[in-house]
Design a protein that fits this description.
Length: 390
């Protein structure tokens, strides 16, 4: 074995050789890096930062400016105006016509002696409903009978001061009669009085259905206590909501058709009777009252209905749903202004028949371009540029 071969097999020589090889490899890698080879880093593999900042506008709110002009993958779409049909549809709910509802109220203190009807019974106008016992009735009836006797004596004998006395007696009769009317007695009941009595039958003021019954036999009542509520269903209200942008298309007297889920094959006809003077600031809608004929009393209060109003054609603005960003308690979109600048707009929206689109009630104009893809990322950049947590 030669001295060189012997040295190669020693541990010291082998260690030096390994270190030399490692040094050569490191030098080669460094040379490759210096010649512009690929260098892995977060900056080379991630999305370039857009460096957002807020830029002031003359006479307007600040807008967002992106350093790169746009986000990778960002899409834009135009807000467009579409034609509305000649039929305006709205959802509503059936309610009693308040002009066709009446309440029987106790006008005296006493107790309930008897009742003849219960809830949901059908009654006729003038039908006896509930008997009230009260000393007030007896006192008022006695005064009426006494005034009548005085007037008859005055007329027959010409006493009590002549013509002036007769007039006074007649006025006393009229005052006593008026008192009985205020206590709830009908003309027929007053004419039938022959002797004072403490019990009087209260009669139905209208024909209809008993909606609410609070009269219990033997219960004490006070003046102002409601005993019965009556209502009729031959005509009903349908209260519907429409958007304020459609207000110019409707007016009282317009004809309409209504359908319900309970009777999908039956169409109920009616007209717009009232338009609310107030607009809901949260939904930008207002209510209309539609007077609808109800043959067979099929429409019931609280029933859901959909009305179709014959009206003039109009226009509506629509925007892609993916452009909408819900932030805190409202919807926003980002409008492209050009030059890498974007304005944030708060919008009011409504449902739309075309899938993937929403009707825009306020906040946008036809032809404006809004961010669709990456709209959520745009909203995050907006908050970052304003120094907020997105």
């Amino acid at each position: 074995m030669t001295p060189m071969n012997l040295m190669r097999k020693t541990p010291l020589f082998q260690g030096r050789r390994a270190r030399a090889i490692a040094a050569l490899i490191a030098a080669a890698l460094a040379a490759l890096g210096g010649c512009g080879g690929p260098r892995l880093s977060r900056a080379s593999t991630g999305t370039p930062e857009s460096r957002p900042r807020m830029v002031a506008q003359a006479g307007g709110a600040p807008v967002l400016e992106l350093g790169g002009g746009a986000l990778p993958g960002m899409g834009l779409a135009a807000v467009r105006a579409v034609e509305l049909s000649g039929t305006l549809e709205a959802n509503g709910q059936v309610a009693f016509d308040d002009r066709r509802v009446a309440t029987i109220v106790s006008r005296v203190a006493g107790r309930i002696e008897a009742t003849r009807v219960s809830q949901w019974d059908v009654v006729r106008r003038g039908e006896p409903i509930v008997a009230l016992y009260s000393p007030d009735f007896m006192t008022a009836e006695a005064e009426y009978l006494q005034a009548g006797d005085t007037a008859r004596i005055s007329r027959s004998n010409g006493l009590a001061g002549g013509a002036g006395g007769a007039d006074l007696a007649e006025s006393m009769v009229e005052a006593a009669r008026r008192k009985l009317e205020l206590l709830g007695m009908s003309d027929a009941d007053i004419a039938a009085i022959r002797a004072p009595g403490p019990t009087v039958w209260m009669r139905a003021p209208i024909s209809g259905t008993v909606l609410d019954n609070k009269a219990v036999r033997g219960a004490a009542v006070n003046p102002g206590d409601a005993l019965y509520s009556l209502g009729t269903l031959d005509q009903v209200w349908i209260v519907a909501n429409i958007y304020e942008t459609d207000l110019a298309r409707i007016h009282p007297g317009q004809t309409l058709r209504a359908v319900t889920t309970a009777y999908p094959d039956q169409v109920f006809s009616g007209v717009i009777a009232r338009i609310s003077p107030n607009i809901d600031p949260d939904t930008h809608t207002l209510r209309i009252r539609c007077q609808v004929n109800n043959p067979g009393a099929r429409l019931k209060p609280q029933m859901l209905a959909r009305v179709a109003i014959a009206t003039a054609p109009g226009q509506a603005l629509v925007a892609p749903i993916e452009a909408l960003v819900f932030d805190t308690n409202a919807y926003y979109v980002y409008v492209a202004l050009g030059g890498g600048r974007f304005a944030r707009r708060k919008v009011e929206i409504a449902s739309w028949s075309e899938q993937g689109f929403a009707r825009v009630l306020s906040g946008l104009n036809a032809g404006e371009r809004v961010v669709t893809a990456e709209s959520i990322q745009m909203n995050s950049l907006w908050h970052q540029a304003n120094g907020e947590n997105s």
